[in-house]
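Worked problem 6 (solution included).
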Amino acid sequence: MYHHPSHPEPTYPWQPPPPPPEPPRGRTARHTPLGRHSDLRVLRGAYRRQRRVATLTALGYFVAFLVLSAFAPSLMTASPAPGLPAGLLLALLQLPVTGLAIVVYERTARRRVDPLAERIRTHSEIDARRDARATRPEGAGR
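Solution. The predicted structure is:
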């Protein structure tokens, strides 16, 4: 049916209201904390992710090595280079993988966890100074 622009679309009382807009999907660009407790929650989450990545990197490789040793002995005894079995090569690679886990842990600490901790420390120092000034008796600072 054709409606002229000067005549708006009729509405009826039995029509449901339009649905509310959907929240944006995906991650937000930056988290803006709502307060001290929110900052601590964000810090705990960042630290938890950091521990998981480092632990899964080091232990995951070690567990994969153990599983291959137990269930794929022919692969572990195969020789990719003369005189060097694959099992020994994979065992020697455990050290660089653990080193990589340490590097990833330190990098994420510097980039994500330390700035959050520093912000919380700064805010708590400011709050402590404000509380000290508020509880100081009149004339005590003279």
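Discussion: DSSP finds four helices and no strands in the chain.
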